[in-house]
Amino acid sequence: MRIERMSIISDYQLPKRDRSPDECEDAWAASTDGYALAVADGASQAAYARLWARLLVESFVERPTLDIDAAWVIPAARRFWEIVTAQLPIPWYVAEKLARGTFATLLGVVFAKDTPGFSAVAVGDSLLAWCTPHGHGGTFPVVSLDDMASYPFLVSTLPNCNTAISSQTVKRQVDLPRGDTFLFLMTDALGRWYLRELHEGREPWQQLLELADQAAFARWASDNLENGRLQDDDLTLVTVRVTVEGD
Amino acid sequence: MLYSAEISRRNPSAFLFVIDQSSSMNDRWGRDGETKSQALATILNRLLYEIITKSSKEDGVRHYFDVGVIAYGGGRWRDALSFIPGPILKPLPQLEAHPLRVETRMQKIPDGAGGVITQEVKFPVWFEPVADGDTPMREALQAAAEVIADWADAHPSAFPPIVIHITDGEPTTGDPEPIARAIHQLQTDDGNVLLFNLHIGSGAGSKVIFPVSETEVPPDAAAHLLFRMSSPLPDFMIQAGQSRGYQLAPGARGYGYNVDMVETVDFLNIGTQAINLAR
């Protein structure tokens, strides 16, 4: 068997309530051939969190790897500081925030080209979920809401904050069955919703697959914010359909 | 659940500092030979620096809080930030835009590859040390009560304002306790206004910080007065204090007596923990 077809069937983003779209500090990217994808969630307390998230996902799809370590981060960090220092002088409070570091989660997925499967790597609490023709496939890097850390380890623009990255990285390899598998890459607010739905015996992937477009996603998110099932945070959802066929 | 309202640009909260600037604040405090007023000015400026830093993004300072400082001494109280236009409680971006003066310092910024770039940065100062005259604590707290009452009326859904009072002595112009009780009664939909009291001392004699019961307070009338004037800490502040190593029990008051400089910094960081709730 092998992956016959693969496509991103939707990508949705929403900023926190009452924020403009350019204030959303999540980012996602896909490689040109679609075999590598990543999402990142910038820490809201930091400066240039959106930029850092974008640089991380772009780095991942350019250099996909399961071995995320301090050395792997350096090119993205160097690019970050090039962009930021090009804007000097900056206000004192921005300089102070930069000196404290900018942080983000990183979730990467790499599809195998010769076998039907994918590998995933995660730093922090962005979530990958997947459903197969048989139903719930799995979640990664955690399987329950209790496992979502209140203060997850994050990738930093400061080299001295990344020395423990490789020990904080979670990796997994997954074989895909014949037929269609849907993968959902999401940042943590959606991830918490997804895990809670699973815990309560529902099939959250069905709700996500029914979202026809960004407007439907926005209505769905608004309803779930109102009923308290979704926390007010930046939302990112990238859905990938993978078809496995052959002998 | 109380003390859980969103703190945001749409729904800001408030900090009001009430600072003793009577003549006894000229006394030496700590090991470096600074006076209480000098050390407190440094501490307060760093706190305002921190509040602004945490409330900012690369595109500017977010209006998460209104901030004010009432100083008292020399027979009167005053708006210690009167050089900033507007009422006593001023939007945080206004503090950033209008420091009293600015010092220039060099700051190192990493270049991402293990090196650093050195940039000249501004270090703003808003509060200068003053120490003069008697201690009109009651009048200053009355002014604070009026400011906070008006603010709470105008912001009914806000996270409750926090008043932090710092003194080194006893009131000289009347009993401030009824005023403190009146401040405790002020509220928003999210809970009662919080009034914390900190007595900074020489370090000699008994001290207490975050007590639960008045029985824990040293046998001093002023110490007991300030305890009764102090609100209990909400849960998130208790957790913040515990994470800093303080043994805080439920019901612990936002109160410290005869504290030193380190405890003052901790007290203020715990008392302004709401900064970390803003989004």
Short synopsis of the structure:
The complex is a heterodimer of chains A (247) and B (279). Chain A has 247 residues and is an alpha+beta fold.
Description:
The complex is a heterodimer of chains A (247) and B (279). Chain A is α+β, with helices and mostly antiparallel strands and 247 residues long. Chain A is 30% helix and 32% strand. Chain A has seven helices and twelve strands. In chain A, the strands form three sheets. Chain A has a five-stranded antiparallel beta sheet with strand order 1-12-11-7-8, covered by helices on one side. Chain A has a five-stranded antiparallel beta sheet with strand order 2-3-5-6-10. In chain A, helix 1 crosses helix 2. The termini of chain A are close together. In chain B, helix 3 (137-154) runs parallel beside helix 4. The longest helix of chain B has 19 residues, at 36-54. Helices cover 29% and strands 25% of the residues of chain B. Chain B is globular and about 55 Å long. In chain B, strands 1, 4, 5, 6, 9, 12, 13 and 14 form an eight-stranded mixed beta sheet that branches. A two-stranded antiparallel sheet of chain B has the order 2-3. The mean pLDDT of chain B is 92. In chain B, strand 7 and strand 8 form a beta hairpin. The interface between A and B is medium-sized, with 30 and 29 residues.
